[in-house]
Amino acid sequence: MYKILIVEDDEVIAKTLKVHLEKWGYEAVCVQDFNHVMECFVKEQPSIVLMDIGLPFFNGYHWCTQIRNISQVPVIFLSSMSDNMNIVMAMNMGGDDFITKPYDLNVVTAKIQAVLRRTYSYSEHPGNLCEYRGGILNVNDQTFTYEGKKAELTKNEFRILQILMENTGKVVSRDKIMEKLWEDESFIDDNTLTVNVTRLRKKLEETGIQDYIKTKKGAGYLIE
């Protein structure tokens, strides 16, 4: 089942869209906190996003840009701001289509179906995102993004961070991390693990996030 994320601050419009799309067999989720749209996007990992332009805090262009930093999930803009400038800007910001309000719900459905066919007929779902404290790990391309800044990770750096993010709040021992890396045929020893963690920390700090990975002496590492 395809999941649709609705980023629309008009509750009546959002609920109407949600009910209509669920009748067509889609799973539809409405954003509730418009100051934390990205957290909702990562949590839900939708197949497609319906994005209004005029939103509280930040407009739809801002959120589309943030999504494009970490994902190629299609974005369809829904807006009454339908002059040529806004339509061109929506496409330039990474939008896949633009639907003018007021709209016919059947037209919205047809547009969604067309975009889904183009996007997923020959490719896998571009999900697999982990988020914590605003940091987003993309499993597909092995990158870490924080507030728009992206870090490219090596295979070992990626696996170390993935293991820690999958166990947030828990100490993961060095032995456990090395065991997981050996399972991936990354033949890593204790010294190499230290070097990889040091390099990983530096890359994370370069994105602007501080003290993301903490050391518990004699126990291991954790993210909290």
TrEMBL record:
The modification 4-aspartylphosphate is found at residue 52. Keywords: DNA-binding, Phosphoprotein, Transcription, Transcription regulation. The keyword Transcription applies. Transmembrane segments: none annotated. Residues 127-224 bind DNA. The keyword DNA-binding applies. Pfam families: Response_reg, Trans_reg_C. It comes from the Bacteria. Residues 127-224 form the OmpR/PhoB-type domain. SMART domains: REC, Trans_reg_C. Residues 3-116 form the Response regulatory domain. PANTHER family: REGULATOR OF RPOS (PTHR48111), STAGE 0 SPORULATION PROTEIN A HOMOLOG (PTHR48111:SF43). May play the central regulatory role in sporulation. It may be an element of the effector pathway responsible for the activation of sporulation genes in response to nutritional stress. Spo0A may act in concert with spo0H (a sigma factor) to control the expression of some genes that are critical to the sporulation process. This is Stage 0 sporulation protein A homolog. It comes from Lachnospira intestinalis.
